[in-house]
Amino acid sequence: MASNELTQDIQNDAMRVSTASACNVESQLTAIGQMLQADEQLGLKVAEVLPIPLLITRVGEGKVLFANAAVEEAFGYKRDRLIGRNWSCLIPKLTCRKRLEQMAQKELRVRGLTVEGRRQDGQELWLSLWQQRSVCHGVECLVTILADVTEERRETKRREQQEETLQQLLTLADRDRELIACDIHDGVIQDMTGALMHLEAVRRGIRNGSPDVDDQLQNVMQMLRDGINEARRLIDGVRPPDLDRFGLVGAIQSFIDRTMTAKKIQIQFQSKIRGPRLSEQAETTLYRIAQECVNNVWQHSRSPRAAVKLSQDDRGVRLIVRDWGVGFSPQDVSATRFGLAGIRQRARLMGGRAVVRSSPSKGCVVSVTLPLDKAGTRS
């Protein structure tokens, strides 16, 4: 066969095999194996021009007999440095190689095994590995295709993280709805029910000429006031009005002032926030976390004082709440206690992180960081 005809045949074979790989890597691998056994020289030439990494290694030794140009491009190794070397440098993780060995021994062929690979420069890759036995250079060998699926893996991971974030958001929403329902039942409804009962007593008193009608009316008015205050508190629980009126710093300061007045606790507040206002979601997240932390201080810490610090730099926004109370062991906190879990979830939903440091009799420090690219700004 003339040289140009042979070249054309090789190109046609390469195109045929490459087209097969787009829909079925197994067809590609089978075609290469058959070519090697029918015409080794032609099989190697076709393997050389394939657009995805292909290795031929010696069975039992793992020594590289052949690597096509795509291997060099994908992994960064010069091919002359790979030939004669064990191919484990491309898949350095022992657990991945063990899985590969187990699958190869059990099924004699490997089909689409996902393994972790690594470039020469240390960059990690995710690979879909396909392998079958053949013969090359007169010895039994393994033909291996290493399809790079790193981007697909990252996209899958992003989708999983989005689903996890959505589930966390739904959990928080469900929890908030349950708390609001309980607050309405235990607060507003009880006040309204009490007011109604007193009004009925007032009506009977008026009919009977009872002398304590004024006292009953005073009780009704007080219950209505309590109900109004409770309703306002519930509104604050959904979306704190102070955030819209005063911004994040002013809202936290207002909450701290109310807490110090009502709970007789000293709270020092420092703020170093600069630049445009954060997004509504970020402000609400930081306000809620500060609210939860301060409430935890007066409810659980037995500390007469606390400190709240809000700061911002080029990397993100940080909230730190500290007390000097009885402390606790964070690992011993029950999973059913939503306080700390809620703080971590709220931070995580904004791409941030919450760290709780405490030990018995040593007080507690809660540090929350939200990255600026996630916290955003208002347009």
Written overview of the protein:
This protein is of the alpha+beta class. It folds into three domains: 3-148, Beta-Lactamase, CATH 3.30.450; 168-238; 243-379, 2-Layer Sandwich (Heat Shock Protein 90). It contains twelve helices and ten strands. The termini are far apart. Mean pLDDT is 83; it is low at 13-23.
* Arithmetic mean pLDDT: 83
The 3D shape can be described as elongated
The CATH class of the largest domain:
Alpha Beta
Distance between the termini: 71 Å
For this structure, the CATH topology of the largest domain is: Beta-Lactamase
Strand order of the largest sheet: 2-1-5-4-3
Rg over CA atoms: 34 Å
Summarize the structure.
The protein has 379 residues and is of the alpha+beta class. It has helices at residues 3-23, 25-38, 40-48, 69-75, 79-82, 94-107, 150-208, 213-238, 241-263, 280-301, 338-349, 372-375; strands spanning 54-58, 64-67, 110-118, 124-136, 139-148, 266-272, 305-312, 316-323, 353-358, 364-371.
Features:
379 residues; Beta-Lactamase; 3 domains
Topology:
Elements: H1 3-23, H2 25-38, H3 40-48, E1 54-58, E2 64-67, H4 69-75, H5 79-82, H6 94-107, E3 110-118, E4 124-136, E5 139-148, H7 150-208, H8 213-238, H9 241-263, E6 266-272, H10 280-301, E7 305-312, E8 316-323, H11 338-349, E9 353-358, E10 364-371, H12 372-375
Parallel strand pairs: 6-7
Antiparallel strand pairs: 1-2, 1-5, 3-4, 4-5, 7-8, 8-10, 9-10
